[in-house]
Design a protein that fits this description.
- With about 280 residues, this protein is of the alpha/beta class.
- About 45% of the residues lie in helices and about 15% in strands.
- It is built from twelve helices and eight strands.
- The protein is globular and about 50 Å long.
- The protein binds erythose-4-phosphate.
- The site of erythose-4-phosphate has 11 residues, from α8.
């Protein structure tokens, strides 16, 4: 298999699955996790099914155990660990969690949401040389704010546009990936685009065609790619989406991050879903 330029991360919460993908590909560059994926981890599901809900420190211990098992399996793109944040979690609270999670493994990236508090947490994190992955990104304005908030970082920063969830609301999520890459081509290169919420082989092939720096991919899409003999997009490859095109916005990356319009309904909904999935595993419910 010809290794793509795009780094491939496993989008999941189960070390066994990461091992399986590694066997299929011969390598895994990294891994992303989130509260929904951790709630689906087989051991956590088994505990819940047997009536054992977790308290918060047990949940953290489980999350740590999972990423410790994944950490040595992956390459230089690291393991993204997401803080538990609802709409009232402050930047300082996110940072405290981020600091602790960052110590769990040597190759951690801390995931904060693309909200004002998440951006503040990222700004403070990069000053402490904590690598960050800004998640739930649905607009170019949010990606520009990530760029501005993390300027001067010594560590790489990821921003994760969520392709499939934009497709779900009838907008072409791959356009967002393309637009962010175009916008960042005028920048200093400190933020890398990590295409997330990949739902089809076509999404993955378009990531390769766009030379997206990183893509996080569920095991079943890797399996579909393997079953087809690991095709790569040829010169004639054209990604077709029935969804509405997302227009490119000319934004000035040198503005302070607070100047960008970072509100997005899907970011709010995404936080609600992560919180609900996380709470479903907890004692208090
Ligand atoms: C990874 O970082 C994201 O959390 C994940 O790709 C989201 O995927 P989904 O939209 O399919 O839940």
């Amino acid at each position: 298999m010809q290794k793509p330029k795009t780094k491939i991360l496993v989008d999941g919460g189960d070390p066994e699955e990461t091992r399986h993908v590694k066997k299929l590909l011969g390598f895994v560059d990294g891994q992303t996790t989130n509260p929904s994926l951790i709630a689906k981890n087989p051991h956590i599901r088994q505990l819940i099914a047997s009536g054992h809900k977790l308290n918060q420190s047990e949940e953290m211990a489980e999350y740590k155990r999972i990423v410790e098992a994944i950490s040595p399996l992956v390459g230089s793109a690291g393991v993204s660990i997401e803080v538990f944040a609802d709409e009232s979690t402050t930047a300082q609270e996110m940072l405290s969690q981020g600091r602790e999670m960052y110590r769990w493994i040597p190759n951690a990236y801390i995931k904060y949401p693309c909200t004002a508090e998440g951006l503040r947490a990222a700004q403070m994190s990069v000053k402490e040389s904590i690598r960050v992955n800004m998640t739930l990104c649905f607009s170019q304005q949010q990606a520009a704010a990530v760029y501005a908030a993390t300027k001067g970082t010594k560590e790489p920063v990821y921003v994760s546009p969520f392709v499939g969830r934009l497709d779900d609301i009838g907008q072409n999520g791959m356009d967002l990936v393309k637009n962010i890459k175009r916008m960042f081509s005028a920048g200093d290169g400190h933020v890398f685009v990590l295409a997330a919420s990949i739902r089809s082989l076509e999404h993955l092939l378009d990531c390769f065609a766009l030379e997206t720096e990183l893509a996080t991919v569920p095991a079943k899409i890797i399996e579909a790619w393997a079953a087809r003999g690991f095709p790569m997009p040829g010169k004639d490859f054209a990604y077709k989406s029935p969804a509405r095109a997302m227009a490119y916005e000319a934004l000035d990356l040198n503005q302070p991050w607070e100047k960008f319009d970072i509100e997005h309904e899907l970011t709010r909904k995404g936080i609600e879903k992560f919180v609900a999935d996380y709470r479903a595993t907890l004692l208090a419910g």
